[in-house]
Amino acid sequence: MRRTALFLSLALAACTSSSPLPPGYVTVGLENGPITLDPRFATDATADQIGELLFDALTRLDNQSRRLPHVAASWETPDPQTYVFHLHAGFHFADGQPLTAADVKATYDSIRDPQAQSPKAQALAPIDRVDVLDPLTVRFHLRQPFAPFLSDTGVGILSEREIATSPTRPLLRPTGSGPFHLTAVVPDERVVMACNATYPLGHPRLAGVIFEVVPDAVSRLLELKRGSLDLVQNGIDPDSLEWLRRQPHIAVMAEPGSTFQYLGLNLQDTALSDLRVRQAIAYAIDRDAIVHTILKDLATVATGLLPPTHWAYSSQVPTYGYDPRRAKQLLDAAGYPDPDGGGPAPRLRLSYKTTTAELRRRIAEVLQEQLAEVGIALDIRNYEWATFYDDIRRGDFQTYLLAWVGIEDPDIYYLTCHSSQTPPQGNNRGRFHEESIDQLTEAARRTIDLEERRRLYAEVQKRVGEQLPVIPLWWTTNVAAVNRRLQGFELQPNASYVALKDAFIEER
Amino acid sequence: MTAYLVRRLALAVPTVLGVVTLVFLLVHLIPGDPIDVMLGETAHVVDKARLRHQMGLDRPLPIQYGRYLRQLMRGDLGRSLHSRRPVRRLIVARYPATIELAGAALLVALLIAIPLGLVAAARPRSTADAVCRGVAVLGASMPNFWLGPLLILIFAIGLEWTPVSGRGSLAHLVLPALTLGLGMAAVMTRMLRATLLDRLGDDYIRTAYAKGAGAARVFLKHALRNAALPVVSVLGLQAGALLAGTIITETIFSWPGIGRLTLLAIQTRDYPLVQGCVLVVALSYVVVNLATDVLYGVLDPRLRKQP
Q: Which residues in chain B have Cβ-Cβ distances shorter than 8 Å to A235?
């Protein structure tokens, strides 16, 4: 028996033709592969999170969502509509050519080219033109003063020559100037990158990184256990964390993230257009209980869109702690009395749309139970993602659960609360309209002065907190499970893998 | 035999056309907007309208359908809305993995089902038969989403004989092929046992024994060949299902097959990719059915002579 087992083992080992991990490489497990890595077209979260390892942008994000110099060593704004960027001289593409102002112009012009139909074109609509002043100076002229413009300077720069080879279609293997060079892409299977030894901001200590697509959550954990994956970030079922923490070779890391989970409300609905009903729902939800029991404390109860780490965050906002008695009083006042004095008949019936994901279903059941306590009956309707999202876009809902991922500029308040931003054009999905918030968010996007913007957004946060166009639930915590041989990796609020640049292997 | 094949091929044309039409209608009727997927939700309505026009999605459905059929005639499956790469290239990149897994799973199923079925039929109601039937029931009642991780735990984590997931070597193929093959083997074992027992009671078996043929010869040459027809039918159906992609197994083992590609296409309302994948699956069924018919002819000469 033992001989047979040994034979089988040897036979299988002999069959394993896939080469072992090259020295100095680490493997990272991904839930989904990037749809495209071309920074002109990439909009999926995976491409964004990997992209910073391959491409350099004019600016980079710090942990407080501020834009700091990167390829642009510095910049000035001679007037509110003009930004002049002075480029660092040391960046080179993988083909050895230097990164110049012409490449910056070509990248931005390509995205803005109507023929390219880039999903990023609308975000760059405020740009009127891009001018090359000299090989290391580029000027952006905006159509009007637009403070959130700096958040658009995070686009990875491609070379002018490569863009010319594919002006309107994504490149399968785009060449960047980042700390790693792309060496192989197998769509929906793996992305392989090797260290850029001439990277001007200090070359990576890893020889390379292999991103492997492992779509099943359990398989990702088992790959970690086996040691064939070194890092898995997010997409980890909270119930698996205890098991992961017991594995001696795996370290579990958790840091606050910038993903905002909320309960969306249709303000055109008769009941939900009443502020008292919205407040009653907010008081009826025990967020702490959900965060503790279902999310295993991997979230922080939210007060608004911006997380506490954000430069524009304000804590001076109304909060709605769990208070079912207050919720019932508000429903009484809004004209929804208890019809049978604590009996089974509800005061109010609402539909609740969500996806079919297991965690979402469990959250829905708890919300249903908590709202039932105050007399609100929630009819849960689970849909496949595209159908669910289509309903939300069309305004075919009463309440729903969704998240804003990767919040960067506080202009998100304009995009989600301004009355001009209702779908299909924008993201004010609940059709919220409040004149003072319209004015404040308009003023804030025209104000270049950071302190003044901070003041304006503090006021916006306070008023949105009072009006409750959506019910804030929690900010999700980013989680990573790391093989202890991989050292120096740090979680970023936007879940970027950029810290792999400074990570290293420590064999034990 | 040639006329027989031509007739079968001619029958396949309306089948494929029917599938193509049905899928075209269904993907356009289900909710979800592919333009939202391509341009993102913040895109300007004017940009969305322009792209919708460029892609012809604003034209009446019959016109879109006619254009799609003309495109198909030229062998052009269109471009993925999502990755903007040619659908044909995306499918060609995935289909070898699907064929590889389907072939391996069928092999596993046959290697298990034939000996078990023979043993069970040779000694009906014996301990060996009970064991074989028990194994068959066990195999049939274990869902893939449970069996897959169980096999990983035993062979990849416990014994470290195989990789956990992925594709690239024979060792990567073992666990997904076992996961799919064990369930199929169970069905085929039971079917083979039942049909063999049925055949063993036939007159020609008694005649074979009377002519002095040995038990092994009677069993393998006379009974098994005649019992194989229903088994081939099941095998054909299962091969078709395997070639359509096995989403759960492909997901558990990170196997880059057509099943996951189809699922992703449906989730993102990538119309050309959904249509391309379904077309390939329909063609696979046609080919497998033809192969099954040919095998029938080989096993039973009477079928070849039928008009």
A: none
